Amino acid sequence: MKNKSILIVEDEPNIAEVVSLYLVRADFQVRVAKDGVAAMEILEKQIPDLLILDIMLPEVDGFAITRWLRERSQVPIIMLTARRDEIDRITGLELGADDYVVKPFSPQELVSRVRAVLRRTNQQSPSEKETQPITSGDLTISPMARTVTLKDELLSLTAKEFDLLTLLVTHPRQVFTRDQLLERVWGESEYIDPSTVTVHIRRLREKIEQDPSSPVHLLTVWGVGYKYES
Fold first, then answer.
1. 143 and 68 share a domain?
2. Number of folded domains in the chain?
């Protein structure tokens, strides 16, 4: 993970300073933006390897930045929030955040989460078989380009949505529990709320199902988990 670049967007100087210190000690390159406007100015010029983004910001909040950024990049995002309401966490995940941390938090745990997210988005070189396009009906997944097309239309997926869909499509009719999906896609399930899987399944249905309310591909197996039917 050495020399990976991290942008911290945090308006509380003490928090930004402590997080920066721990990340620098962990060999990350760190830059800090004190508000949403400053963050967007930085992001327009250069996208970091990962973004640590506070939700409650002056001028432009973290939700707006995530929405804006997801139209331009799939850079991993870890959200920081002082609010414990589940709706805030779900909103962040639905907008495309990869993880969230509730204040107050352990700086060392945040560093661990950064490493975990970067591991998931910087996999080792795949085998030749794993680089071949995957086709299921009108859906085509390109592992090398990390793109998904439906009826030749390019879909906009987050990194985790891509990984989750690829896992399910490459194991048709196999039922995965939420814990199994957390382990296979998110890697370190102890850091992630199980509702994360539900949120990502719902977002994928909105993108690949003709009628998301009556899915025919991404199916719920009640009391067990989820599966993909081609």
1. no
2. 2
Q: Report whether 117 contacts 159 (CB < 8 A).
A: no
Question: Of 66, 89, 121, which marks where a domain is finished?
Answer: 121
Each residue of 206-230: pLDDT tens digit? 999 999 999 999 999 998 999 999 8
Starting at the edge strand that comes first in sequence, how are the strands of the sheet with 147-150 ordered? 134-136, 139-142, 147-150, 153-154
Identify the domain boundary among 85, 104, 121: 121
Domain residues for 162? 128-228
pTM over 0.70: no
Q: Same domain for 73 and 171?
A: no
Q: For residues 163 and 185, is the Cβ–Cβ distance under 8 A?
A: yes
- Burial of 95-131, coded b for 16+ CB within 10 Å and e otherwise, reads bbbbbbbeeeeebeebbebbbbbbebbeeeeeeeeee
Angle between helices 13-25 and 107-121 (to 10 degrees): 60
With 90 as the cut, is the pLDDT of residue 38 above it?
yes
Token look-up 């499509």 returns 169
How sure is the predictor about 3, in pLDDT bands with cuts at 50, 70 and 90? confident
Q: Dihedrals φ, ψ of 61, to 5°?
A: -85, 175
Phi, psi of 154 (to 5 degrees): -70, 125
pLDDT for residue 226: 96
Q: What is the rounded distance in angstroms from the CA atom of residue 5 to the CA atom of residue 23?
A: 10
